[in-house]
Every structure is written in structure tokens, then in C-alpha cells.
Design a protein that fits this description.
With 316 residues, this protein is an all-alpha fold. It contains ten helices and no strands. Helix content is 85%, strand content 0%. It is globular and about 70 Å long.
Length: 316
Amino acid sequence: MSGLTKWVVLFLSVTQFVLGMLVNGFIVLVNGSSWVKSKKISLSDFIITNLALSRIVQLWILLLDCVKEILFFKLHNDWVLVQVIDIFWTFTNHLSIWLATCLGVFYCLKIASFSHPTFLWLKWRVARVVVWMMLGGLLLSCGDTMSLIHEFKIYYVLQGADDSGNVTEHFRELKNKYEVIHVLGTLWNLLPLIVCLASYILLILSLGKHTRQMQQNRTSPSDPSTEAHKRAIKMVLSFLFLLLFYILAYLLTSSHYFLRGTLTTKMITEVSAMFYPACHSCILILGNSKLKQTFVELLWCKSGHLKPGSKERFSP
């Protein structure tokens, strides 16, 4: 990696890190303070808050790994540090994926309208379904982390075999076992992403169908309900494109062991992985009336147009 490329990658990483910390920190601060004041929190706000917390940790890990690879390249072979970073990354990444999936399923079941019996059964039990998904996601994240630790043990034995040049049939079997575990772990993490993707597609189809029905009923294009549905479709499409981008970056990052790309390729995929937790949280703020209103009021306070504590309100 050339000197210029290193600084460009580092600049992009720091920029996305700062953006991600600001937006996710804002979400945690607003929802957390509201929770403390009212002593209660909605299920959607609870999911969004935990998602923002997991992404804060995730962004710190990605930045640490990027700085290690670029500025402290000698630590690249520090086995203990590599294990610690990968373990924390695996847990927070898997957990944030499941939380984003729970949020997508929650929005789909709350907003979408389909007459299929299975969908109706899930819709009537939306809170129970999402809570069990969150608990399941937490357990699966812990299980995936334990699997990674086992994967590290096998990898350590394989490295010893490569260094000594003593490659026997036992070590070949271990290598095959390691590759199978690695592939299965990657495919297993794709399950919540596919569920989230399906939720967004169903939500887009439902919103599009409802918008067309309103237009057929000669509803004015500037009608507030029609405009709200159009804004919702644009927002969900943004979620969908960001999710597809993240899936691609995740697959490239997870396949690094097999592709054996350069350090530049690895850094670019990690920078791409930082893009999703930062930008997705920005869209969450814009799509949440409470977060958006608080953000607008904060901007007006900073510009001096509104005094803190004023009862004036702005429409989201």
C-alpha cells in the first residue's frame, strides 16, 4: 500500500468514524434521556438505542483495526491483539445485524398490509416475535463468538504446522475443518441479513400497493397521506440499498482468508463496512419523528433562533 493510499484510507475511516459516533451517540442520548424521564420506552426506540450502542462499539473496533494496519503495521502479527479485535468485531457485528433485522421485521409487521394467514398471525404478535428475535440474536451472537474462538485454536495449530513444514494428513483434515467452519460461520451470519432484506422488500411492495390504491381513488398527489407513503418508500429503498452494499462488503471482508488480497483490498472493504453503521443511523434519525424533531431543535438552538427550553415545536 502506497503512502498516499494509506492516508486516504485513514482519512475516510476517521471521517466515517466521527460521523457514526455523532449520529449513534445522538440516538443513545435522546432515547436514553427520554427513557430516564418517562420511565418507559417503546419497543422500536429500545431496538434503535441498542442498535446504536452496538454500532458505537463496532466503529471503535474498525477504527482500531484500521489504525493498527496502517500506522502500527508491526502489530499485524500480534496474535493476541488480532484475536481480541476479531472476537469483539464478530460479537458486535453479529448483534448489530440481528438488531437491524429485528427493526426491519418490526417496521414490516407494523406498517405492511397483507392478507396471508401467516403474516396476519405474526402481525398480531409483533411485540412477542421481535422480542424473541432479539433474545435469539443475542444467543446466536454469543454462539458465533464461541465458534470463532474454536476456529482460532485450529488456525493456531495450522500456523504451527506451516512454520515447521510438517504437513501431515491430520493437518490437512484440520485445514479442511477450519475452512468448513469459516464458510458456515459466514453463511450463518447471512441468515439475518436475508430476513432483513425480505422485510424491506415486503414493506416496499405494501407501501407501493397502498400508494397506487390512493392514486386510483383520485387522491390528490399532494395529499399528506400520499406524500407520507412516498417518503416512507424512499426511506425503505435507502435502507435496502445500504443493506445490499453492506452484504457485499461483509462477504468481501469474510472471504479475505480465501481471496488473499492485498492490504489495500482489506482496508477498502473495512472502510466500506464502516459506511453502513454510520449512514443507516443517519436515515433512522430522519425517519423517526422524535429524533428528527430533537435534531432540528438542536440545530436551531445552535444557530440562536430558538432558546433552550422553548415550547416552540417544528413539524418533522
